[in-house]
Design a protein that fits this description.
The complex is a heterodimer of chains A (about 120) and B (about 120). Chain A has about 120 residues and is mostly beta strands. Chain A has no helices and 11 strands. Chain A starts with a strand and ends with a strand. Chain B starts with a strand and ends with a strand. Chain B contains no helices and 11 strands. In chain B, the strands form 2 sheets. In chain B, strands 2, 4, 5, 9, 10 and 11 form a 6-stranded mixed beta sheet that branches. Chain B has a 5-stranded antiparallel beta sheet with strand order 1-3-8-7-6, with no helix packed on it. Classes of the chains: A mainly beta (about 120), B mainly beta (about 120). The interface between A and B is medium-sized, with 30 and 26 residues.
Chain lengths: ~120, ~120
C-alpha cells in the first residue's frame, strides 16, 4: 500500500460546474501526478508536480488546473466540467531521487460522471 | 503518435498455461520499462520492471524480457492463474533529464482472461 488516498471516490456533476479532486499521500514523496483513464486510451498524464508550488502540464491538460500547497496534497480542478471529462482519474506518486529509475504508485481512483 | 503500443486488446489463456503479453515502443530514449496490473474499480498496481541495461527480470511467476534492438518487451506469466485476470499496462520512461522527468508513457492495455 503506497499510502495514497483520493477523494471523492465517486462524483456526479453537471456540465459547467467546477469540480476539485484531491490526492493525499503519506509518503512525503516529491513527485505527484494526475492521470485519466478512458477506454481505448490507457492512462494519459494531465498534470504533474515536482514539489510544492511546482507543477507542469502533461499530455491532456486542457480544461484542467492543479495546485500543490503542501507536499502531501495535490488538487486537480476542472474549472467548468464538460461531458468529455467524464473519466476515471488516478493520482500517482514517486520519490523522485535524482538519477533514479522511478516506479510510480497509484491511488484507488476517482470515478467522475459529468451530465 | 503512440510511443508505447500494446497491439492485443485482449488475451485468453487456460489456467496453468503461459500468458505472454507484448509491448512495442518507438522512442529510443526510453530506458526503464514497467508493467502494471489493474483490476476493475482499483488503481493500477506495479508488477515488475526492467532497466534497459538488462534483457530479463524475474519475480516469481512473472518474467519480463526486453529486446532493445527490436524495441519490444514482453511479460510472461507462468503458470497463469484465474486471479491473474486483469488489464495489464506496459509503461516506459526516459532517462532523468530535469524536473519534468519520471514521466511514464503508457500503452492502452491488454485484458487478460485466465480460464479455469
Amino acid at each position: 500500500d503506497a499510502g495514497i488516498t483520493q477523494s471523492p471516490r465517486h462524483k456526479v456533476t453537471e456540465t459547467g460546474t467546477p469540480v476539485t479532486l484531491r490526492c493525499h499521500q503519506t509518503e512525503n514523496h516529491r513527485y505527484m501526478y494526475w492521470y485519466r483513464q478512458d477506454p481505448g486510451h490507457g492512462l494519459r498524464l494531465i498534470h504533474y508536480s515536482y514539489g510544492v508550488k511546482d507543477t507542469d502540464k502533461g499530455e491532456v491538460s486542457d480544461g484542467y488546473s492543479v495546485s500543490r500547497s503542501k507536499t502531501e496534497d495535490f488538487l486537480l480542478t476542472l474549472e467548468s466540467a464538460t461531458s468529455s471529462q467524464t473519466s476515471v482519474y488516478f493520482c500517482a506518486i514517486t520519490e523522485g531521487l535524482a538519477g533514479g529509475q522511478e516506479t510510480q504508485y497509484f491511488g484507488p481512483g476517482t470515478r467522475l460522471l459529468v451530465l | 503518435d503512440q510511443q508505447v503500443k500494446q497491439n492485443s486488446p485482449s488475451l485468453s489463456v487456460q489456467e496453468g498455461r503461459i500468458s505472454i503479453l507484448n509491448c512495442d515502443y518507438t522512442n529510443s530514449m526510453f530506458d526503464y520499462f514497467l508493467w502494471y496490473k489493474k483490476y476493475p474499480a482499483e488503481g493500477p498496481t506495479f508488477l515488475i520492471s526492467i532497466s534497459s541495461i538488462k534483457d530479463k527480470n524475474e519475480d516469481g511467476r512473472f518474467t519480463v524480457f526486453l529486446n532493445k534492438s527490436a524495441k519490444h518487451l514482453s511479460l510472461h506469466i507462468v503458470p497463469s492463474q484465474p486471479g491473474d485476470s486483469a488489464v495489464y499496462f506496459c509503461a516506459a520512461s526516459a532517462a532523468y533529464s530535469g524536473a519534468g522527468s519520471y514521466q511514464l508513457t503508457f500503452g492502452k492495455g491488454t485484458k487478460l482472461s485466465v480460464i479455469p
